[in-house]
Amino acid sequence: MVESLRLFADRGYAATSVAEIEAAAGLSPGAGGLYRHFRSKEEVLASAIREHIERTSKQINDVLDHATVFEDRPLEIRLRMTCQAGLAKMREEQDLIRVLFRDLDQFPNLVAEMREGIVNPLYDGIATWLSTQPEFAGVDEDWPAIAAILGGAVVNYWLANESMYEPPSHIDEKRFVEGWARLGMGLLRAPVAGTPVEEAPVEGASAT
Length: 208
Description:
One of its GO terms (molecular function) is transcription cis-regulatory region binding. With 208 residues, this protein is mainly α. It has eight helices and no strands. α3 packs parallel to α6 (108-131) and α4 (75-92) packs across α8 (173-185).
């Protein structure tokens, strides 16, 4: 499946022949060996996507199961590690992401499977991780929304770097990770929802 997904990513779904998939999989090209396992080229693509979904689901569960291992480290370090893990995940899934942006508009059912099997669980995992950090205990936040912002920043940074061949504003990965972690640290000062915000005095207004 890895070989077929790489071909789809490099050449495009339509331009990749069954014979090329067979050759990449170690089968005799054009001999029809692929059809002993799959009914069509689309089924090969679907199987590759589902393989990634299964692996990602296991990774998320493993991370959450072992989240307490690093709680003795400062929060900023844990945030940096989380950001670095997110960028590493994007690199790991780069072939799948290329196929998604190039070809998956032809297969809305597979897009839905990716959304529900990879994308949403990843954002849910970030929200769960943030909400369970000891330093955020008692912080009343919309964690899914925060996860969408922080996770989206990782996705945007990687995509910009990948598609435009350099990071936004020439910000290298080290600076991005440090900035991302500082943004996360700002949650420690987040006001409790419903707390009235003191209005700044209007210049020139007289006290009554």
